[in-house]
Batch of 2 targets.
Target 1
Amino acid sequence: MYNEIIMAGFGGQGVLLIGKLMAYAGMKAGLEVTWMPAYGPEMRGGTCNCTVVLSDRQVGSPISRSPHAAIVLNLQSIDKFESTVRPGGILVVNTSLINRPAVRTDIVAVPVACNQIAQEAGSTKAANMVALGAFIGASGLVELDLVKGTLADTFAGRPKIVQLNHVCLDKGFAIGRACAAQLVG
Amino acid sequence: MAKKLMKGCEAIGEAAVQAGCRLFFGYPITPQNEIPEYMSGRLPQVGGTFVQAESEVAASNMLYGAAGAGCRCFTSSSSPGISLMAEGMSYIAACELPVVFVNIMRAGPGLGGILPSQADYRQATKGGGHGDYRMTVLAPSTVQEAADLTMEAFDLADEYRTPVMILGDGLIGQMMEPVEFKKHIEPEDLPVKPWATTGARGRAPNIINSLYLNPEDLERHNWDLVRKYQSMAHLARHETYLADEKMDVLIVAYGTVARIARTSIDTLRAKGLKVGLFRPVTLYPYPSEALARTAELADKVLVTELSTGQMVDDVRAVVAGRRPVEFFGRVGGMIMSAEELAEQVEKLGAAS
């Protein structure tokens, strides 16, 4: 098992955080994990991304030119990363901010209205959690409960935030799982 | 202690604290600012002192003083900052003082850029400052190893009374991986340093000085240093990956680049090409004997670095013409992808 996942969006959308949550969950599941943020000039222009590698053996390259999955939260990110996903891989698309569908037909596209769903749940700030939930639902890569547990630890003493994020993770998870089930069916 | 997910820079900082180091002197520069940031918060918690010096030159001379007084101390910087520290480094080596330097390399020369690089290999392993001296150079490849080698660096520095450098690149500084600190040392449990200038109450004064106006004395001092460096040869360390039997191509790489090579090797092995990796963990002393033995098993050797070709000189010296040694490098902050490196190996494997 060797999985490279890229998460990308605007600065402030929380892509680095969902990357860290994935990495923590992987670590708790006993996997080898690496979290690598893009830094430097690439960060200019407001886009932001990180790569997470989850593996059952030692992690090689911390960066990836052809990830197994990408979670894209804005238009610039889908333009940049859709073409890089490996055939058969997963692309989670935030349809609230991306006004075009995925072009690739050899990957599993998971369209999710992350901002809208998060807003209905209480705050658009949690749109990243909807996306993370959708990815976990579609990929089954880590247990959702491990992510929830990490979130509860990270935001200990702020139960409202934890609850909102848990709701958003669940909503995303259901959509992701439905997408994957459809594909299998 | 349980495993924690930490950035390479933070792991290096915490490792210093766990090693009983309570003094940091430095000056900010990207991409290693997380180290001074971490130390500025952490050292006051353990009764230590963090000093942001007025310059790198000042920082390295503060280290000179603190180490002379017998305290574990360290600094971190990135390439242009390390050049500025080179004066102090030479004095520290001359006076045989234990100091740990961390260089999170960025692309050069000059101010260059802030993205990862390995172009300070020569500066780190062959000198940097003036005069005949060497630094022990350790090159971590994972965040855990960055923590382990940092702790070890303090022990080596004390044992051999010599400056030790942790040579990493921007990737290892910024990436997060699980880390566990395997030891914890309190400063008061560290061995006493009878040579330190601690105030000569009740004993003859200790003198720390690098000025030898008598050439006979200075020559003797130079050869003493050489003998010390030679006595450290057994510290040479390396790691191999799938390099125990006959290979088409042996890749030699250190630090983060060696990880990219691992990924390339997995792809190439799946295609039936016999490729292995030799990764020096210590860059000085260099694991020459082990490399010579491993290279014998391969038809060809490919050295890959984030430089225009620096470590390749050492590999060529070791292989000594017995095998063709080729080079592939990316510079300027550009990083080779695993695919790109695999293509280079395939090309080399096909050409004969």
Note: Chain B touches chain A at residues 3, 5, 30-31, 113-115, 142, 170-171, 174-178, 256, 259-263, 266, 333, 335, 337-340 (CB under 8 Å).
Target 2
Amino acid sequence: MLKYVLKRILYMFLVLFIVVSITFFMIHSIPGDPLTASVENLPKATRENYYARYGLDQPLFIQYIRFWKLFFTEGSLGESLKYPGRMVEEFIYKYAPVSFGLGIWGLVIGVTLGILLGIMAALHKNRLPDYLATLIALIGTCIPAFVLASLVQYYFTVKHMWFPTAGWGKPIHYVLPVLCMTLGPIATYCRYMKSTTLDIIGQDYILTAESKGLRRPTIILRHVLRNTLMPIVTMLAPSVAGLLGGSFIIESMFAIPGLGTYFVKAINSRDYTMVIGMNFLFTATYVFSLLVVDLLYLVIDPRVRLEVKQNRRSVASNVPDEQ
Amino acid sequence: MSPMNSDWVNNTEGLTPEMFKTVGVDTTKDRVLRPHISYWQDAWRRFRKNKLAVFGLILLIFLTVMVIFGPIIAPHPHQDTNIKESYHPIDSEYWFGADKLGRDYFARVWQGGRVSIFIGITGALICAVIGCIYGGVASYFGGRIDTFMMRIVEILSSIPYLLVVILLSMWMDAKGVKTLLLAMTLTGWTGIARLVRSQMITLRNSDYVLAARLLGVRPMKIVTSHLIPNTIGIIIVNITFRVPSLIFSEAFLSFLGLGIQAPDTSWGALCSAAQTVFTFKPYLMFFPAICIALTMLAFTLMGDGLRDALDPRQRK
């Protein structure tokens, strides 16, 4: 068991290393660089000093070694090209809590509501709760986050002024962004939960449980919910990736000082160190959530434990199909 | 675990004499009571019964007709600016009004639809073709080749997909339809590859393929007449669900300014441009947004119907 966990963790670092390396070389092979425009009209010596300051005068491979050396010795991701004197990790320490806080709220509320709605729809099939849940799920699947954000912003802040248009720091500022972020997960989990619950309700062991005279809540909690949660756990990792993407849009639309906003800015201003650094963080978050899902499987699914014991489980056997 | 190497056709491992005992023949069961219908006729019959799915299909046909003929029947070409008509209200000449530069919004919305739907469908087809070939090759050869190929797939799908798209569109430094397609298909095929591989392996170990092997049917013939026809259903379903997610991604990227660039346009790019003036000119956001929503709806409903019709294991 321990051997599998260690192997799995090692595998996570391997994937992270590969992705960050690919990012590094891709970014640096883009023709031109962010300094080109600002140093164009400067004397040659000044220009060379500029490049030397950021280490851009060195061969690519040396820069690559330096990147990892800096990371491992000082835990640093390098200096931002756009904001001289500020390190990428400063931005991360400052703004990541905002983005992650928003993401976690969105995920927790979205997944919980989605699961509840899905179960409700399945248990009251073809009655009002089912239609309501299906409608919410359809709206969630059909409307892009940025359209929803525009609508919500217009209706609640411009027309009715119930919420502040901009600003950050108080709990009230969280309401609208979180609302926009939850609709996607609600739709996904509701649809999924409904179909799996219906599947399981039709199984023979539920019939057995019913004929044994177990009470309905017991059946739902112990027999239905436990089995529906398995596939839900697999879906959590892609949801984390989805929320990362969602945060780019939601943060820039609600003017929230989070990482998403800075990532979009960094892309548009070609701040390479910033893009590499944030990509590092986002990939790390994603592969880490994949690891957590895999380890959770060990806890909740006895079949997986058996596979591990018999050494049959691949370290990468549980990668999600869709993101 | 069943053997997974390339000479699976002649492999007899795991076969026991008990598997071939006669179970007795009941000739009365042989009579065919109903007229014979093919898989596709059966699927079409089931699809037709699903009202929501048929609604999705009709909606999709309507949208397709509009994106083909919309820019043609519009009174003004989609890229013609006319600054005097800036923010022209909706009337008999400008059916959807005009944007800031006085461009006919009706023409622009449908022109944008051409790009959005083209990216969605082409992207999904490219993913499907690559995924089928990759998954098919991996499952056909089996053994080490299979393990190696699947390991690559696993690493590729551990990369957050949006970052790949963002990085690639930065790297290629050319924003447009081609870049978007390449970026979205680069890792997008992995899902289909795994689906095809697992389906192929399941089918290969099934009894009727065993029967075909025992009758001496050539491997290529087994692949073409048993494995491929039985995989095509789930591939079609997968494509139907992939199209809307690609349209969504395109809209997302264009919204961030990484997608389609002016004077070309797409639904995402239109929404992005409309967002700044949303408070004063809500219709500029409304039309492209409703088009995205309707397309999503059409593909989702149709996908649900197709899944029930084509994939018997999922049938409720």
Note: Chain B has eleven helices and no strands.
